[in-house]
Amino acid sequence: MNQTTISNEVSTTGVGLHTGVEVHLTLKPAPENTGYIFVRTDLDNFEIPASAEYISHCSYATTLMRRGVVLSTCEHILSALRGSSVDNCFIELDNIEIPIMDGSSEDFLELIKKAGVAEQNASRRHFGF
What we know:
Elements: E1 2-6, E2 10-15, E3 22-29, E4 36-40, E5 46-49, E6 55-57, E7 63-66, E8 69-72, H1 75-83, E9 89-93, H2 106-115, E10 117-123
Parallel strand pairs: 4-9
Antiparallel strand pairs: 1-10, 2-3, 3-9, 4-5, 6-7, 7-8
């Protein structure tokens, strides 16, 4: 099985659940072996990989932090990407928090469906047991 990314760039706007601030979010195709990278466009495109090493806390929302830069409420978009079998994606946003949308992953699943999923050349990585 090969890795995948989204076929086309797609965008949406919503409100952060905890901040109440409008957030513009764009999903962009990413190269093989990239994983999921959050890009804070409001902070000179500062990147925060979706990795366990950057988990700050998980009370009421999954929060990532890298070098003092925070990203909150990322669990719904990550579940939608994983559930859609997307391995590599840049997730750009212009604020501290992913928009809550309807409170589930459904709106993000629709966004990914609209973008399409493209197979890449590299083999998908699997955890060995």
